[in-house]
Structure formats: structure tokens, C-alpha cells
Specification:
It is a single chain. The longest helix is centred in the middle third of the chain and has 31 residues, at 21-51. The protein has helices at residues 8-16, 21-51, 55-64, 73-101. Helices cover 77% and strands 0% of the residues. The chain has a domain at 34-101.
Length: 103
């Protein structure tokens, strides 16, 4: 059973490269996911640089008030963004693992 369905025109293009279309399409999908993961990790790194701490430390200091008012717009915005990025990273890693297991 194939992971994806490929339109005939695209299948022919991939096949003309000498590759199995399904395997090649899954590799391309995996490469795209890895690029999105790199972008996510870069955004996380930028927040780590901005605050000089990890996400876990940020959450702890935010909750204790060490960073200021946790409901101030800048802190609340960064907290939501960072949390979303961490969830996105976990999701993308999980999908990449599943895809790589099928290659």
C-alpha cells in the first residue's frame, strides 16, 4: 500500500528521473518536513537568544513573575508563540519518524 497517490503526469515526470515515483515522492515530502522543522527550530532558537534561557526556564520564570507581568502583551505573545513552536516541533518530529520508517 502506498503512502500517497500521485497524479499520472507527476508520476511520469518522477519516473523519467529513473526513480520509483512513490518512494521519491515520500522522500521529497520528508525533505519538506525537515525544512519546516529547521525553520521551527530557528524560531525557537531566536526566542532562546532573546530571553537567554530555555523554554522550560522561560515558563517557570514567567509563572513566578521573574520576567514581569505574565499578562503583558509582549510576554504573553512570546509565551504563546514559544508554546506553539514546541508543539509544532514535536508534531513534525513524530511525522518525520513515521515517514522515515516507511522508506
Amino acid at each position: 500500500m502506498s503512502l500517497i497517490r500521485i497524479e499520472p503526469a507527476l508520476r511520469d515526470m518522477i519516473h523519467s528521473l529513473g526513480s520509483d515515483p512513490e518512494t521519491e515522492a515520500v522522500k521529497i515530502f520528508s525533505m519538506g518536513l525537515k525544512e519546516l522543522l529547521r525553520e521551527c527550530e530557528e524560531d525557537i532558537m531566536n526566542l532562546e537568544i532573546k530571553y537567554g534561557i530555555s523554554y522550560e526556564e522561560f515558563k517557570s520564570k514567567l509563572e513566578s513573575g521573574e520576567l514581569g507581568d505574565p499578562f503583558s502583551y509582549p510576554l504573553e505573545k512570546d509565551a504563546m508563540l514559544w508554546e506553539d513552536l514546541m508543539a509544532e516541533k514535536r508534531l513534525r518530529l513524530g511525522i518525520i519518524r513515521q515517514v522515515e520508517e516507511r522508506l
